[in-house]
Every structure is written in structure tokens, then in C-alpha cells.
Automatic annotation (TrEMBL):
Gene3D superfamilies linked to this entry: Tetracycline Repressor, domain 2
Protein name: TetR/AcrR family transcriptional regulator
Keywords, alphabetical: DNA-binding
Gene Ontology MF term list: DNA-binding transcription factor activity; transcription cis-regulatory region binding
InterPro entries: Homeodomain-like_sf (IPR009057), HTH-type_TetR-like_transc_reg (IPR050109), HTH_TetR (IPR001647), Tet_transcr_reg_TetR-rel_C_sf (IPR036271)
Domain HTH tetR-type: start-end pairs: 17-77
Residue spans binding DNA: 40-59
Record's keyword annotation contains Transit peptide: no
Pfam families per the UniProt record, alphabetical: TetR_N
Record's keyword annotation contains Zinc-finger: no
């Protein structure tokens, strides 16, 4: 009697945290491709290459998945490569360069921006997710404050208002332009609007004096 061959292959164990990250990434891909409504638990698991039961092993509900999505760094607008800032240029020119560099991230992945907008609106209407939009805004604003500080130092500019207030205005302007663009998809209008905001923000700065121009008397 010939015994059956022994299957020596073993399934690679994937820990729960890794499965959660894979499902979150899969959910984002489905949402970007087909919209939030299409992101059923079955579709998400299929996208991740996992059995359907894996979803409920990692998440208690779709709300918990949405929370995980909003908690990830889905909004990458401020994470683009740092633009070339010239301290000899006019403040408006450097601000225009900065805003346009952040805008480039929107044009690179517009579907991610749409998903982010949809998720925030959904969270605002769901008591279980109600605190997430405020948390996301604070996190994004903290990052913006850091970027504005870095920009002001490189451009040798002094802000005439509090840095956080300045960053809040920048975030509001950028968010408003993104929301409008998601409706009309006119990139030229979006960039022209950002250039206009650069002019307004420039009025809230003044150049840092160069000590070499004012030697001690």
C-alpha cells in the first residue's frame, strides 16, 4: 500500500496587526477605485486575498475599519518633497511655491482626497466616529505648524501672527480649494486660487533683517 505524499508546505503565519494593516490598505484601494459604498467586507477581504472571516477576526465592525482608515496617514498633502525656497525671493513667490508643491500631492492622487472627504463626512454623521474628524484635523494642523515654521526659517520670514493661527489659515485655504476642485476638476482655477491665497498670506509676513546689512555701530 502506497501512503499519500506528505504536504510539506506550510502556510505563512500573519499576525493580527499585519492583517489589520493589509485590510486597511485593501479597503482604501477598493474605495479609491469604486467608492465607499462598494467597500463591503467581502470585497475588502477579496482585495486583500483573505477569507471573508478574516475581517471579523480583525475588526468588530465597519465603523472600526473606518476609524482605522481615518487614523492612518491618508492625507499626504503636506508630505511631498520639500520645495526649493529662496530667501532672496519675495515672500509671495516663496508662498506660491510652497502651496503649489502641496497642491501637487492632490493632483497625484485625487482618489485619495475624495475618499478622505467622504470618510470625514461619514464620520461626522456617525456617533461612533464623531471624534475622529477633530482628531484628524489636530494631527494635520500640528504637521502644518511644523512645515510653516520650517518654511519661515528657510525663507527668512517673520510671521506677524501666531504660527498656529497662520497654519490654520493655510490649512483652511488648501482644504477649501481641494473641496472646490473635487467638484469642478479645473486644475488651472485651483492653482490660480492658491496663488491668490499666497498673496494674502504674504501680507502676514515681513522679512527678517540680515545682520550683515546693519553692522553694529
Amino acid at each position: 500500500m502506497v501512503s499519500a505524499p506528505v504536504d510539506k508546505t506550510t502556510k505563512k503565519h500573519i499576525d493580527a496587526d499585519t492583517r489589520r494593516r493589509m485590510l486597511v490598505a485593501a479597503a482604501l484601494r477598493v474605495m479609491k477605485r469604486e467608492g465607499i459604498a462598494a467597500a463591503t467586507t467581502r470585497a475588502i477581504c477579496a482585495e486583500a486575498g483573505m477569507p471573508h472571516g478574516a475581517f471579523h477576526y480583525c475588526f468588530r465592525s465597519k465603523q472600526e475599519l473606518y476609524a482605522a482608515l481615518l487614523a492612518t496617514d491618508i492625507n499626504i498633502t503636506l508630505d511631498v518633497e520639500w520645495p526649493a525656497v529662496d530667501p532672496r525671493a519675495e515672500p509671495v513667490e516663496n508662498l506660491r511655491t510652497l502651496l503649489r508643491s502641496w497642491w501637487s500631492a492632490v493632483e497625484t492622487d485625487p482618489e485619495a482626497q475624495l475618499v478622505l472627504s467622504e470618510l470625514v463626512n461619514l464620520a461626522l454623521r456617525d456617533p461612533e466616529l464623531g471624534e475622529l474628524p477633530a482628531w484628524g484635523h489636530r494631527t494635520y494642523l500640528d504637521k502644518a505648524v511644523s512645515r510653516v515654521d520650517h518654511f519661515a526659517a528657510e525663507a527668512r520670514l517673520h510671521l506677524t501672527i501666531d504660527t498656529r493661527a497662520f497654519a490654520e489659515m493655510v490649512v483652511a485655504a488648501l482644504g477649501g480649494v481641494i473641496d472646490s476642485w473635487l467638484s469642478h476638476r479645473d486644475a488651472t482655477t485651483a492653482v490660480e486660487t492658491l496663488d491668490g491665497f499666497a498673496g494674502l498670506f504674504a501680507t502676514l509676513t515681513r522679512p527678517v533683517p540680515d545682520d550683515r546689512d546693519h553692522p553694529p555701530g
